[in-house]
Amino acid sequence: MVLKIKKRIEKELRNYARSIDKIYSLNKLSFCLSKNIKEFILRDGKRIRPILFCIGYLGFSKKSPVGLYRSSLSLELLHDFMLVHDDIIDKSSMRRGRPSMHALFKRYLAGNKKAKFSGEDLAIVAGDVMYAMALDVFLTVKENKERKEKALKKLISATLFTGTGEFIELLLGIKPLEKVTQKDIYKIYDYKTANYTFASPLTMGAILAGAKPRQIKKLYAYSMLIGRAFQIKDDIAGTFGKESQTGKSNLTDIKEGKRTLLIYYAFNQANKKDKLIIKNILAASCIKRTDLVKIRKIIIKSGALASAQYQIKHLYSQAIKQTNDLKMKKEYKLALDSFIREILLEK
After folding, report:
1. Total of domains in the chain
2. Cβ 308 vs Cβ 236: under 8 Å
3. Confidence of residue 347 (pLDDT cuts 50, 70, 90)
4. Mean pLDDT over all residues of the chain?
5. Tens of pLDDT along 233-244?
6. How many C-beta atoms surround the C-beta of residue 252 within 10 A?
7. DSSP state of 207
8. What is the CA angle 265-84-182, rounded to 5?
9. Which of 55, 4, 83, 47 is nearest to 222 (CA)?
10. How far apart are CA 77 and CA 324, in angstroms?
């Protein structure tokens, strides 16, 4: 079922990309902007957010309204907008195995000595355009006006919370490791990942379908726990995963000195010598591959990796308890659990 939903979303995304110039006349205004946005949004991805939106809707509705799959693209476009700005902040040159948006614009400006702006400047604006597109495409769904407005507010609040999470994460990066708490890290996970990747898409769909407040509350509690678990897994992949699969460098999080749960466990469970190594590497201005090897060894030796992996399973088991009396259609409830298990528990 999930595969079928994803195929519908992929088809709708291709159709939408082809229609961008007709809807907004982007190619007439700027061929470069139009070309790069279309290329970026069509890159391979898991499409987690639009899939969850559709499951959230179909699990509580008796019908599939006109524009459901087109409307689901709002969450993918929101994600793309976030990625563009995130890559600028992280100074990442790659995204999904290809040049990041600001890297594409840098190429466009290469050799132009008259330009008083950068690829990053152009990418910020491109990201803003994508956010506007996300809001606009959501409105294409044909549904109850009041429920539609509530779901739209949820989409807007997801953007607000994610931006706040990014802000908090940047500031946490300069906080001494000794003072960083697990609560600090989970706060970022909740704001930056759990809300906009899981809670907002699922509850937006359910709200739009007319689900009862109690059911929406249960979905929210469930998806926030799943979101935490997902971010822990993502952090592990960011340090230990294959770059060809993650689409970004294993050095990115370390270069940024990010306070992840993996680093938190490693620092608090390591001996004095290894604590100092972690501090020095995260504070360094130039990170090498040898530093990554050292960090990996400490993470494994300290038991941090095992602790993080246990936490993923624990959060998943806690989340499942929230769905025991969830009044979602059985086939969609099973599809949701299968999809989440694949995301969280796959090797």
Report:
1. 1
2. yes
3. low
4. 93
5. 999 998 898 777
6. 20
7. H
8. 15
9. 55
10. 32
The pair of three-digit structure tokens given for residue 97, joined into one six-digit string: 């195995």
DSSP state of 327: -
Distance, CA of 238 to CA of 110 (rounded, Å): 30
Instruction: Measure the CA–CA gap between 248 and 202, rounded to whole angstroms.
Output: 27
pLDDT digits (tens, 9 = 90+) for 37-69: 999 999 999 999 999 999 999 999 988 888 999
Helix axes 145-172, 119-138, angle to 10 degrees: 150
Around 146, how many Cα atoms within 13 Å sit in the side-chain half-sphere?
A: 1
Q: Domain containing 302 — which CATH number?
A: 1.10.600.10
In 59-142, alpha helices (H): 68-90, 101-109, 119-138
Residue environment code for 319-343, b if the CB has 16+ CB neighbours within 10 A, otherwise e: beebbeebebeeebeebbeebbeeb
Plot region of 96 (φ>0 → left; ψ -120 to 50 → alpha; else → beta): left
**pLDDT, tens digit, 9 for 90 and up, residues 122-168:** 999 999 999 999 999 999 999 999 999 999 999 999 999 999 999 99
Quote the domain boundaries for residue 108: 2-345
- Nearest to residue 322, comparing CAs of 222, 254, 230, 243? 222
Count of other CB atoms within 10 angstroms of residue 167: 13
∠ CA 190-194-200, rounded to 5°: 115
User: Which tokens go with 331?
Assistant: 């086939």
- Which tokens sit at 207? 């709200």
Name the percent of the chain lying above pLDDT 70: 99
Token duo for residue 101: 């948006």
Look up residue 32 and give its two tokens: 């470069």
CA distance 102 to 114: 18
**Average pLDDT, integer, range 168-196:** 94
What's CA 235's distance to the chain center, in Å? 12
